[in-house]
C-alpha cells in the first residue's frame, strides 16, 4: 500500500473558563448547590494555526476495535471451516 502523508501542525491552544452559579445555600449543613458552566476560548495569540484549520486525524479507538472484530470474525470463520 501507499504511505500516508503526515504533516505536524500546531499547537492549538484553548483556554478553559468555569463559572459556578450558586442555586441554593444550606446553612444547617454548611453547603452550597451550584450549576457549573464550562466555556472554551480559542487563543490565537498562543496558537500556531487558525481556529478555521481543517485537520484529519486517525480515530485510534475505532481502528483498534475494528481490528479486534476483524480478527475475531476471521478466527471464528476459520474454526467453522476447519
UniProtKB/TrEMBL annotation:
User: This protein's superkingdom?
Assistant: Eukaryota
**What is the membrane topology here?**
Multi-pass membrane protein
Name of a matching Pfam family: CD36
- Output the InterPro entries linked to this UniProt entry: CD36_fam
Q: Which UniProt keywords apply?
A: Cell membrane, Disulfide bond, Glycoprotein, Membrane, Receptor, Transmembrane, Transmembrane helix
Q: What is its main location?
A: membrane
Q: Please verify whether the record's keywords include Membrane.
A: yes
What compartments host this protein?
A: Cell membrane; Membrane, Caveola
Write one Gene Ontology MF term: scavenger receptor activity
Gene Ontology CC terms = caveola; cytoplasm
What family, per the record? Belongs to the CD36 family.
Q: What is this protein called?
A: Scavenger receptor class B member 1
Amino acid at each position: 500500500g501507499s504511505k500516508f502523508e503526515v504533516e505536524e501542525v500546531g499547537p492549538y491552544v484553548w483556554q478553559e473558563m468555569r463559572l459556578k452559579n450558586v442555586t441554593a445555600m444550606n446553612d444547617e449543613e454548611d453547603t452550597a448547590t451550584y450549576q457549573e458552566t464550562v466555556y472554551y476560548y480559542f487563543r490565537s495569540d498562543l496558537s500556531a494555526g487558525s481556529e478555521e484549520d481543517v485537520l484529519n486525524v486517525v480515530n485510534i479507538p475505532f481502528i483498534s476495535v475494528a481490528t479486534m472484530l476483524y480478527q475475531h470474525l476471521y478466527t471464528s470463520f476459520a474454526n467453522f471451516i476447519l
